[in-house]
Amino acid sequence: MAPYASDDMTAPGEADGPRARRRRAARYVVPVTVMGVAAATIGLVPAIADSGDPDLPEITAAQLIEKIAQSDVEQLSGTVKITTDLGLPDLGGLESGLASGATERGGDGGSSADPSAKLTELASGTHTLRVATDGPDRQKLSLLENAAEYSLIHNGEDVWGYDSESNEVYHGTVDASGEDREQQPPATPEDFAEEALKSVDDTTSVTVDGTAQVAGRDAYRLVVKPKQSGSTVGAISIAVDHETGMPLKFTLTPASGGAAVVDVGFTQVDFDKPAASTFEFTPPEGAEVTEEGEPDRAREHSGKPEGAPKSGEDLAEGLGGPKMLGEGWNSVAVFDTGEEGGLPTGEAGGDLGGFLDSLGDRVEGDFGTGTVFSTRLVNALITEDGKVYAGAVTKDALVKAANQGK
Protein backbone atom coordinates (compact mmCIF):
# COMPACT_ATOMS: atom_id res chain seq x y z
CA MET A 1 0.00 0.00 0.00
CA ALA A 2 1.30 3.43 -0.86
CA PRO A 3 2.00 5.83 2.00
CA TYR A 4 -0.92 7.95 3.04
CA ALA A 5 -0.78 11.62 2.10
CA SER A 6 -1.12 12.54 5.75
CA ASP A 7 -0.51 15.81 7.50
CA ASP A 8 2.96 16.86 8.66
CA MET A 9 2.59 17.56 12.37
CA THR A 10 4.87 20.43 13.23
CA ALA A 11 2.92 22.89 15.39
CA PRO A 12 3.55 22.50 19.11
CA GLY A 13 -0.12 22.96 19.94
CA GLU A 14 -1.13 19.94 17.92
CA ALA A 15 1.04 17.63 19.99
CA ASP A 16 0.61 19.21 23.40
CA GLY A 17 -2.94 17.95 23.86
CA PRO A 18 -2.22 14.25 23.31
CA ARG A 19 0.98 14.47 25.35
CA ALA A 20 -0.80 16.21 28.22
CA ARG A 21 -3.47 13.51 28.27
CA ARG A 22 -1.16 10.56 27.73
CA ARG A 23 -1.92 8.04 30.45
CA ARG A 24 0.69 6.38 32.58
CA ALA A 25 0.86 2.99 30.87
CA ALA A 26 1.15 -0.25 32.82
CA ARG A 27 4.81 -1.27 32.85
CA TYR A 28 6.30 -4.66 32.16
CA VAL A 29 9.42 -4.11 34.22
CA VAL A 30 9.82 -2.87 37.77
CA PRO A 31 12.24 -0.04 38.60
CA VAL A 32 15.95 -0.50 38.00
CA THR A 33 18.48 2.02 39.24
CA VAL A 34 21.60 1.55 37.13
CA MET A 35 21.17 2.41 33.46
CA GLY A 36 23.49 4.68 31.47
CA VAL A 37 22.67 7.02 28.62
CA ALA A 38 23.18 4.27 26.08
CA ALA A 39 21.14 1.77 28.04
CA ALA A 40 18.33 4.29 28.25
CA THR A 41 17.95 3.98 24.52
CA ILE A 42 17.00 0.31 24.66
CA GLY A 43 13.62 -1.44 24.75
CA LEU A 44 12.48 -5.02 24.54
CA VAL A 45 11.97 -6.24 20.96
CA PRO A 46 13.26 -6.17 17.22
CA ALA A 47 11.97 -5.98 13.72
CA ILE A 48 9.96 -8.78 12.24
CA ALA A 49 9.21 -9.16 8.55
CA ASP A 50 5.96 -7.59 7.41
CA SER A 51 3.59 -10.27 6.14
CA GLY A 52 1.64 -7.84 4.01
CA ASP A 53 0.27 -4.31 4.02
CA PRO A 54 -3.32 -4.43 5.34
CA ASP A 55 -5.97 -2.18 3.80
CA LEU A 56 -7.03 0.09 6.66
CA PRO A 57 -9.06 3.32 6.77
CA GLU A 58 -6.96 6.42 6.20
CA ILE A 59 -5.88 8.30 9.29
CA THR A 60 -3.92 11.50 9.90
CA ALA A 61 -0.85 11.75 12.11
CA ALA A 62 -2.78 13.81 14.67
CA GLN A 63 -5.54 11.20 14.79
CA LEU A 64 -3.04 8.37 15.14
CA ILE A 65 -1.24 10.09 18.02
CA GLU A 66 -4.62 10.61 19.67
CA LYS A 67 -5.34 6.92 19.17
CA ILE A 68 -2.11 6.05 20.98
CA ALA A 69 -2.99 8.47 23.80
CA GLN A 70 -6.41 6.89 24.27
CA SER A 71 -5.15 3.29 24.24
CA ASP A 72 -6.15 1.55 27.46
CA VAL A 73 -4.47 -1.85 27.16
CA GLU A 74 -3.51 -3.11 30.62
CA GLN A 75 -3.65 -6.87 30.14
CA LEU A 76 -1.51 -8.88 27.75
CA SER A 77 1.08 -11.60 27.37
CA GLY A 78 3.50 -12.20 24.54
CA THR A 79 6.97 -12.79 23.21
CA VAL A 80 9.27 -9.92 22.37
CA LYS A 81 12.80 -9.50 21.12
CA ILE A 82 15.36 -6.77 21.40
CA THR A 83 18.16 -6.01 18.99
CA THR A 84 20.41 -3.12 19.98
CA ASP A 85 23.37 -1.96 17.89
CA LEU A 86 24.84 1.16 19.45
CA GLY A 87 28.20 0.66 17.74
CA LEU A 88 30.14 0.62 21.00
CA PRO A 89 33.92 0.40 20.61
CA ASP A 90 35.54 -3.05 20.61
CA LEU A 91 37.35 -3.43 23.92
CA GLY A 92 38.86 -6.78 23.01
CA GLY A 93 36.66 -8.79 25.38
CA LEU A 94 37.09 -6.32 28.26
CA GLU A 95 33.57 -4.98 27.88
CA SER A 96 31.91 -8.41 27.97
CA GLY A 97 34.13 -9.46 30.84
CA LEU A 98 33.18 -6.43 32.89
CA ALA A 99 29.50 -6.96 32.14
CA SER A 100 29.77 -10.61 33.10
CA GLY A 101 31.56 -9.76 36.31
CA ALA A 102 28.99 -7.14 37.22
CA THR A 103 26.20 -9.66 36.63
CA GLU A 104 27.89 -12.29 38.74
CA ARG A 105 28.45 -9.79 41.57
CA GLY A 106 25.03 -8.16 41.23
CA GLY A 107 26.60 -4.73 40.89
CA ASP A 108 28.65 -4.18 44.09
CA GLY A 109 28.83 -7.49 45.88
CA GLY A 110 25.08 -8.14 45.63
CA SER A 111 22.97 -10.83 44.02
CA SER A 112 23.26 -11.83 40.36
CA ALA A 113 19.45 -11.70 40.39
CA ASP A 114 19.44 -7.94 41.10
CA PRO A 115 17.68 -6.36 38.07
CA SER A 116 19.95 -3.29 38.16
CA ALA A 117 22.81 -5.57 37.10
CA LYS A 118 21.00 -8.22 35.07
CA LEU A 119 19.01 -5.98 32.75
CA THR A 120 22.12 -4.13 31.54
CA GLU A 121 22.66 -7.18 29.31
CA LEU A 122 19.92 -5.78 27.09
CA ALA A 123 22.20 -2.90 26.09
CA SER A 124 23.68 -4.87 23.19
CA GLY A 125 22.97 -7.83 20.94
CA THR A 126 19.72 -9.69 20.39
CA HIS A 127 17.58 -11.08 23.19
CA THR A 128 14.27 -12.92 23.45
CA LEU A 129 11.87 -12.23 26.28
CA ARG A 130 8.44 -13.26 27.47
CA VAL A 131 6.29 -10.53 28.98
CA ALA A 132 2.98 -10.47 30.80
CA THR A 133 1.03 -7.68 32.50
CA ASP A 134 -2.23 -7.40 34.40
CA GLY A 135 -2.67 -3.77 35.28
CA PRO A 136 -0.10 -1.49 36.93
CA ASP A 137 0.55 -3.82 39.88
CA ARG A 138 1.37 -7.12 38.17
CA GLN A 139 4.04 -7.62 35.53
CA LYS A 140 6.48 -10.35 34.62
CA LEU A 141 9.47 -10.34 32.30
CA SER A 142 11.55 -13.41 31.53
CA LEU A 143 14.88 -13.14 29.73
CA LEU A 144 15.52 -16.40 27.90
CA GLU A 145 19.16 -17.51 27.82
CA ASN A 146 21.05 -20.63 26.80
CA ALA A 147 19.82 -23.37 29.16
CA ALA A 148 18.87 -20.70 31.71
CA GLU A 149 16.26 -18.04 32.39
CA TYR A 150 16.10 -14.80 34.34
CA SER A 151 12.69 -13.69 35.59
CA LEU A 152 11.64 -10.34 37.01
CA ILE A 153 8.25 -10.37 38.71
CA HIS A 154 6.26 -7.47 40.14
CA ASN A 155 3.22 -8.49 42.16
CA GLY A 156 1.68 -5.77 44.34
CA GLU A 157 4.45 -4.21 46.41
CA ASP A 158 6.81 -7.17 45.95
CA VAL A 159 9.55 -7.36 43.35
CA TRP A 160 11.27 -10.70 42.74
CA GLY A 161 14.28 -11.35 40.53
CA TYR A 162 15.32 -14.98 39.93
CA ASP A 163 18.43 -16.18 38.10
CA SER A 164 18.02 -19.90 37.38
CA GLU A 165 21.68 -20.30 36.40
CA SER A 166 23.04 -19.23 39.80
CA ASN A 167 19.86 -20.16 41.73
CA GLU A 168 19.88 -16.71 43.33
CA VAL A 169 16.86 -14.61 44.25
CA TYR A 170 16.55 -10.85 44.75
CA HIS A 171 13.60 -9.47 46.74
CA GLY A 172 12.60 -5.84 46.97
CA THR A 173 9.54 -3.64 47.21
CA VAL A 174 8.11 -0.74 45.23
CA ASP A 175 6.47 2.44 46.46
CA ALA A 176 2.76 1.79 46.84
CA SER A 177 2.12 5.19 45.21
CA GLY A 178 3.68 3.94 42.00
CA GLU A 179 6.29 6.71 41.91
CA ASP A 180 9.14 4.19 41.70
CA ARG A 181 7.68 2.68 38.55
CA GLU A 182 7.80 6.05 36.82
CA GLN A 183 11.60 6.13 37.17
CA GLN A 184 12.27 2.95 35.23
CA PRO A 185 13.87 3.01 31.77
CA PRO A 186 11.87 2.42 28.57
CA ALA A 187 10.88 -1.25 28.34
CA THR A 188 8.34 -1.77 25.53
CA PRO A 189 7.41 -0.28 22.15
CA GLU A 190 4.74 1.68 24.05
CA ASP A 191 7.32 3.18 26.41
CA PHE A 192 9.58 4.20 23.54
CA ALA A 193 6.69 5.68 21.56
CA GLU A 194 5.65 7.74 24.57
CA GLU A 195 9.17 9.15 24.94
CA ALA A 196 9.53 9.83 21.20
CA LEU A 197 6.21 11.67 21.00
CA LYS A 198 7.28 13.97 23.81
CA SER A 199 9.81 15.34 21.32
CA VAL A 200 7.14 16.39 18.82
CA ASP A 201 7.45 20.15 18.31
CA ASP A 202 8.22 22.56 15.51
CA THR A 203 11.59 20.82 14.96
CA THR A 204 9.83 17.53 14.13
CA SER A 205 8.06 16.01 11.16
CA VAL A 206 5.38 13.40 11.96
CA THR A 207 3.55 11.52 9.20
CA VAL A 208 1.62 8.30 8.60
CA ASP A 209 3.54 6.08 6.17
CA GLY A 210 1.18 3.28 5.20
CA THR A 211 0.39 0.10 7.09
CA ALA A 212 2.08 -3.11 8.25
CA GLN A 213 1.45 -6.37 10.05
CA VAL A 214 3.20 -7.01 13.34
CA ALA A 215 2.75 -10.25 15.29
CA GLY A 216 -0.18 -11.06 12.99
CA ARG A 217 -2.00 -7.80 13.78
CA ASP A 218 -2.90 -4.96 11.43
CA ALA A 219 -1.11 -1.73 12.23
CA TYR A 220 -0.51 1.81 11.01
CA ARG A 221 3.08 3.01 10.58
CA LEU A 222 3.83 6.38 12.22
CA VAL A 223 7.12 8.02 11.20
CA VAL A 224 8.86 10.67 13.32
CA LYS A 225 11.85 12.57 11.87
CA PRO A 226 13.97 15.50 13.03
CA LYS A 227 13.82 18.54 10.77
CA GLN A 228 17.11 19.88 12.10
CA SER A 229 20.50 18.92 10.80
CA GLY A 230 23.03 17.73 13.33
CA SER A 231 20.98 15.01 14.97
CA THR A 232 22.21 11.40 14.88
CA VAL A 233 18.59 10.25 14.69
CA GLY A 234 17.51 9.49 11.13
CA ALA A 235 13.92 8.37 11.68
CA ILE A 236 11.70 6.63 14.21
CA SER A 237 9.04 4.23 12.96
CA ILE A 238 6.20 3.17 15.28
CA ALA A 239 3.76 0.43 14.30
CA VAL A 240 0.44 1.20 16.02
CA ASP A 241 -2.17 -1.55 16.48
CA HIS A 242 -5.27 -0.68 14.43
CA GLU A 243 -7.67 -2.12 17.01
CA THR A 244 -6.20 -1.14 20.39
CA GLY A 245 -3.98 1.84 19.51
CA MET A 246 -1.06 0.23 21.36
CA PRO A 247 2.41 0.51 19.77
CA LEU A 248 3.55 -2.95 18.69
CA LYS A 249 6.93 -2.10 17.24
CA PHE A 250 9.52 0.67 17.58
CA THR A 251 12.48 1.12 15.22
CA LEU A 252 15.11 3.86 15.43
CA THR A 253 17.45 4.20 12.47
CA PRO A 254 20.50 6.49 12.60
CA ALA A 255 21.13 9.42 10.28
CA SER A 256 24.37 7.71 9.25
CA GLY A 257 22.41 4.83 7.71
CA GLY A 258 22.83 1.09 8.14
CA ALA A 259 21.08 -1.21 10.58
CA ALA A 260 18.70 0.12 13.19
CA VAL A 261 20.19 1.25 16.49
CA VAL A 262 17.12 -0.03 18.35
CA ASP A 263 14.63 -2.41 16.79
CA VAL A 264 11.72 -3.38 19.03
CA GLY A 265 8.62 -5.37 18.15
CA PHE A 266 6.30 -8.09 19.43
CA THR A 267 6.62 -11.45 17.70
CA GLN A 268 3.51 -12.76 19.46
CA VAL A 269 0.92 -10.94 21.56
CA ASP A 270 -2.36 -11.91 23.29
CA PHE A 271 -4.60 -9.32 24.94
CA ASP A 272 -6.43 -11.80 27.20
CA LYS A 273 -6.00 -11.55 30.98
CA PRO A 274 -2.98 -13.63 32.10
CA ALA A 275 -3.57 -16.28 34.76
CA ALA A 276 -3.00 -15.04 38.33
CA SER A 277 -0.43 -17.80 38.81
CA THR A 278 1.79 -16.06 36.24
CA PHE A 279 2.76 -13.48 38.85
CA GLU A 280 3.15 -15.79 41.84
CA PHE A 281 6.66 -16.57 43.03
CA THR A 282 8.19 -18.60 45.84
CA PRO A 283 11.99 -18.88 46.13
CA PRO A 284 13.08 -22.39 45.10
CA GLU A 285 14.49 -24.66 47.77
CA GLY A 286 18.17 -23.99 48.37
CA ALA A 287 18.13 -20.63 46.56
CA GLU A 288 20.20 -17.78 48.03
CA VAL A 289 17.88 -14.84 48.74
CA THR A 290 19.18 -11.25 48.88
CA GLU A 291 16.90 -8.61 50.34
CA GLU A 292 16.84 -5.09 48.92
CA GLY A 293 19.45 -2.85 50.55
CA GLU A 294 21.86 -5.59 51.59
CA PRO A 295 24.52 -4.59 48.97
CA ASP A 296 24.33 -0.99 50.23
CA ARG A 297 24.94 -2.07 53.80
CA ALA A 298 27.86 -4.18 52.61
CA ARG A 299 29.44 -1.12 51.00
CA GLU A 300 28.92 0.95 54.17
CA HIS A 301 30.99 -1.57 56.13
CA SER A 302 33.54 -2.27 53.41
CA GLY A 303 36.15 -0.08 55.10
CA LYS A 304 36.84 1.91 51.93
CA PRO A 305 39.36 4.58 52.96
CA GLU A 306 38.54 8.27 52.75
CA GLY A 307 39.72 9.74 49.47
CA ALA A 308 39.45 6.42 47.59
CA PRO A 309 38.36 6.66 43.92
CA LYS A 310 34.65 7.21 43.56
CA SER A 311 32.50 4.46 42.11
CA GLY A 312 30.40 5.11 39.02
CA GLU A 313 27.33 5.32 41.24
CA ASP A 314 28.98 7.86 43.55
CA LEU A 315 30.04 9.98 40.58
CA ALA A 316 26.55 9.87 39.10
CA GLU A 317 25.05 11.06 42.39
CA GLY A 318 27.53 13.93 42.52
CA LEU A 319 26.74 15.26 39.05
CA GLY A 320 23.25 16.45 39.92
CA GLY A 321 20.81 17.49 37.23
CA PRO A 322 22.13 18.48 33.79
CA LYS A 323 22.03 21.89 32.17
CA MET A 324 20.48 21.77 28.69
CA LEU A 325 21.82 23.52 25.60
CA GLY A 326 20.06 23.84 22.26
CA GLU A 327 16.52 22.82 21.39
CA GLY A 328 14.56 19.93 19.99
CA TRP A 329 16.53 17.01 18.61
CA ASN A 330 19.78 18.97 18.94
CA SER A 331 19.51 19.31 22.72
CA VAL A 332 22.76 18.61 24.58
CA ALA A 333 22.98 17.77 28.29
CA VAL A 334 25.88 19.33 30.22
CA PHE A 335 27.24 17.90 33.47
CA ASP A 336 29.97 19.48 35.58
CA THR A 337 31.93 16.72 37.31
CA GLY A 338 34.03 19.20 39.25
CA GLU A 339 37.10 17.14 38.36
CA GLU A 340 39.73 19.46 36.90
CA GLY A 341 42.05 17.86 34.36
CA GLY A 342 39.41 15.71 32.71
CA LEU A 343 40.50 12.31 31.44
CA PRO A 344 44.13 11.11 31.44
CA THR A 345 44.51 11.36 27.67
CA GLY A 346 47.54 12.03 25.51
CA GLU A 347 51.16 11.37 26.43
CA ALA A 348 50.65 12.77 29.93
CA GLY A 349 48.11 10.03 30.56
CA GLY A 350 50.58 7.22 29.98
CA ASP A 351 49.26 3.84 28.87
CA LEU A 352 45.74 4.67 30.04
CA GLY A 353 45.84 7.94 28.12
CA GLY A 354 46.86 6.12 24.96
CA PHE A 355 44.08 3.58 25.43
CA LEU A 356 41.43 6.29 25.91
CA ASP A 357 42.77 8.21 22.90
CA SER A 358 42.26 5.07 20.79
CA LEU A 359 38.56 5.05 21.77
CA GLY A 360 37.85 8.73 21.23
CA ASP A 361 38.77 11.75 19.11
CA ARG A 362 40.70 14.71 20.51
CA VAL A 363 38.98 18.02 19.74
CA GLU A 364 39.65 21.70 20.41
CA GLY A 365 37.45 24.77 20.45
CA ASP A 366 36.47 27.86 22.37
CA PHE A 367 35.65 25.53 25.28
CA GLY A 368 39.27 24.34 25.42
CA THR A 369 40.32 20.76 24.66
CA GLY A 370 38.64 17.43 25.22
CA THR A 371 37.83 14.00 23.86
CA VAL A 372 34.69 12.90 22.00
CA PHE A 373 33.49 9.34 22.56
CA SER A 374 30.99 8.18 19.95
CA THR A 375 28.33 5.55 19.44
CA ARG A 376 25.92 5.31 16.52
CA LEU A 377 23.37 7.32 18.51
CA VAL A 378 24.84 9.11 21.53
CA ASN A 379 28.04 11.16 21.49
CA ALA A 380 29.79 12.54 24.57
CA LEU A 381 32.49 15.19 24.89
CA ILE A 382 34.61 15.19 28.06
CA THR A 383 36.61 18.39 28.43
CA GLU A 384 39.80 18.98 30.35
CA ASP A 385 38.01 21.30 32.77
CA GLY A 386 35.79 18.44 33.92
CA LYS A 387 32.60 19.06 31.94
CA VAL A 388 30.65 16.41 30.04
CA TYR A 389 28.50 17.27 27.00
CA ALA A 390 26.24 14.46 25.76
CA GLY A 391 23.44 14.13 23.25
CA ALA A 392 22.05 12.37 20.19
CA VAL A 393 23.97 14.80 17.98
CA THR A 394 26.98 14.59 15.67
CA LYS A 395 30.51 15.33 16.84
CA ASP A 396 30.49 18.70 15.06
CA ALA A 397 27.16 19.65 16.67
CA LEU A 398 28.52 18.61 20.07
CA VAL A 399 31.62 20.78 19.69
CA LYS A 400 29.45 23.69 18.50
CA ALA A 401 27.21 23.32 21.56
CA ALA A 402 30.26 23.25 23.86
CA ASN A 403 31.62 26.42 22.24
CA GLN A 404 28.29 28.21 22.64
CA GLY A 405 27.92 27.03 26.22
CA LYS A 406 31.34 28.26 27.24
Please, could you describe this protein's structure?
The protein has helices at 12-21, 61-70, 94-105, 115-118, 189-197, 294-300, 312-319, 350-359, 395-405; strands at 75-84, 125-134, 138-145, 148-155, 158-163, 168-173, 204-214, 217-226, 233-241, 247-254, 262-270, 288-291, 323-325, 332-336, 361-365, 368-374, 379-383, 387-391. The chain is built from nine helices and 18 strands. Strands 7-8-9-10-11-1-2-3-4-5-6-12 form a twelve-stranded mixed β-sheet, with helices on one face. The chain has 406 residues and is an alpha+beta fold. The chain is globular and about 60 Å long. Helix 1 runs parallel beside helix 2. It folds into two domains: 12-288, outer membrane lipoprotein receptor (LolB), chain A (Clam), CATH 2.50.20; 320-405, TATA-Binding Protein (2-Layer Sandwich), CATH 3.30.310. Residues 1-7, 10-51, 91-108, 179-183 and 296-318 have low confidence and may be disordered.
Instruction: Note poorly predicted spans.
Output: 1-7, 10-51, 91-108, 179-183, 296-318
Shape: globular
Q: How much is the average pLDDT?
A: 75
Question: What portion of residues belong to β-strands?
Answer: 25-35%
Structural class: alpha+beta
Keywords:
406 residues; alpha+beta; outer membrane lipoprotein receptor (LolB), chain A; TATA-Binding Protein; 2 domains; 12-stranded mixed beta sheet; 6-stranded antiparallel beta sheet; 9 helices; 18 strands; globular
